[in-house]
What does this fold into?
Amino acid sequence: MESALILGAFHFWLAMVTKQDIIEGLRSIGLERGDSVIVHSSLSSFGRVDGGPGTVVDAILAVLGDEGTLVVPTFNYDPGIFDPQTTPSVVGVITETVRKRPDAFRSKHPTHSVAAIGRLARVLVEDHEKTHPFGRGSPLFKLLQANGKILLLGTDLTTCSMVHVAEEIVEVPYLDRQRNVAIKMPSGKIIRRWIRRPGCSRGFGVLEDILRERCQLAETKIGACTARLVRARDVVEAAVQMLRDDPESLLCSLPDCGTCAEARAMIAARQTEEKDREVTELSEQEEQTIRLIEKQFENVTIEPFEIAKGDNQPN
Ligand SMILES: [Zn+2]
It folds into this structure.
């Protein structure tokens, strides 16, 4: 409470952030005219913005120009009954502002929809409801193909949903968790469906140091907000590399996280399965070898060679 008061007072003394401040800040970290960019954001991180969330959206669009595309997550997580027309985004007021713009297109995925404005908007949001939240054909997967960028306004890599695309590409063993959701169709009819539930993102912060070391993360301050820009391809490349080395590498280690505990169990189960398959394949090979040898002799049965267990060996 006390720290909130001090923080509040601190914000009060900060100069009001203007549209021009934001435009200049974004250009300084490499956001350019014509870019396609997904923005993860916290309005309060700026301190005070002259004109509020609309100013942040206008500033981004001014940098992108008519040729560019702005994408924001409009996730609702807890499904309830998803209505693409009315279900609000729960990931910040900037995302809600974009969703409500008359020129915005929103995808119809029942838990992880996005809203987009600009040249690629329609293409990106199309058919999201037919695929997994971050699978092939999802808006973020398409944004990766379009060589898009990721802008983090006052948030860190734990909000970077593009990392889930890397999990899909690697096909990590913990992808296929399901949840049941209700969706309101344009006709007004309510249908129920089982869909994939993405994992926890609280461990994604480990990517930050890697991207910084590779000089792929551009950073600046806009008011009190730390703004970061990175290419989607750089994030996915780094994440794929980590996941291939160790499928647990992007899970969080928070003691209360049941999702990551479940993910670890799924990884272990997959490894056991693979080991079992290997053992079966090996014993089939051995059997074949013995049959081949037997064929060379008449009426001879060969006992397979086994190492005798010593007395002191554990059973
Ligand atoms: Zn977790």
In short: Residues 200, 202-203, 251-252, 254, 257, 259-260 surround zinc ion (CB under 6 Å). DSSP finds ten helices and ten strands in the chain.
